[in-house]
Amino acid sequence: MRSRVNELFTQSRSAAGSRSIVSMMQEDGEQIGRFKVRGLMRELELVSKQPGSHAYKQATVERPDIPNILNREFDVPAPNQVWCGDITYIWAQGKWHYLAVVMDLYARRVVGWALSNKPDADLVIKALDMAYEQRGRPQGLLFHSDQGSQGGFNRSSQHWIVVQTLDTHSVLRQVFSSRVFFEV
Known about the structure:
32% of the residues lie in helices and 21% in strands.
């Protein structure tokens, strides 16, 4: 039984605890209790390792200088007038990955996204660039994000109006590395 517990623990990449191992063994038709498995795991010095909880950096300053132009008016009359975005995190391959998403509020569909190992301005730039290119380089749109504490959206302007053609990444990089509101 020790070898079976050790085998299942190894197959789980050190993640399974006694309850999980009992479930796996019972699926295979073996009758064993959780406390017995727990004891065997202690004897074998097997300790379940779970991923740590995720924590973003805390925002140090609120941005009252950036106006809330959208003001929760989420009903948009036409496509490519208002986009919104956010960053979330995903546990995969033993570490946290970050997903930035840009959504057109009219269509209510994702128009750009990017995945990265860190929630920084480059992640946001990639997502916006994908949206911008896929939607035919629209002009005069509003980009809205919350004033979250993570990465690029927080360090950047929270509400951003595109007035002219954004034909280089340097313009986007300038906007997202800045701490002031920009019209580009």
